[in-house]
Amino acid sequence: MLIDYARARRLLARRDPVLRDLMRRLGPCGLADAQHADPFRALVHAIISQQLSTRASATIEARVAALFGGAPTAATLAATADAQLRAAGLSSQKLGYLRDLCRHVGDGVLSLATLDTMSDDEVIASLTRVKGIGRWTAEMFLMFRLHRPDVLPVDDLGIVKAVQRAYRLRTAPSATRLRRLGESWRPYRSVACWYLWASLDTVPLKE
Fold this sequence. Notes:
Layout: H1 5-15, H2 17-26, H3 39-48, H4 54-68, H5 74-78, H6 82-87, H7 92-106, H8 120-127, H9 135-144, H10 157-166, H11 175-182, H12 189-200
Helix pairs in contact: 1-2, 2-12, 3-7, 8-9, 10-12
């Protein structure tokens, strides 16, 4: 689904003066720059990068890619010995997560080719069956890989902080309060979130 960014900006500016001011200051929405990458590669990246700095994650991913002469597939990754992957820097826990991802893809339980045809809730349900992939990761996949326009990750710390700052709240907003605030952003909550992240210069990096 392609997002009509001009329409999204007009709607958000009309409904929310805080977002209107952010959009005027920050310019075009950068979600338009996020590319539709290979979904398996995106999920491997999401698992490897958990709780790591950008530099550490990039180093490990480069070592993993070197094993395969490029990005691995589910089949090639599944066929690679644990020792080789550990030597590339993968922890036992993340190795287990990647093995589970490969099993789900290999068995057809997770059909990456059909994710784009599913609803947002169906995508989240499918992805979170894999160990190591939680709701937040699935929501980032929806926003940055599938370009879904109406995702609101209420558990994202950047969104919580940005809303507190932009709306001058005395305390951090709860998930309930974020959902209530986000009702006026429908059907472009993803676009609103990008501007909130950008206001803190903390837009999630999605390789």
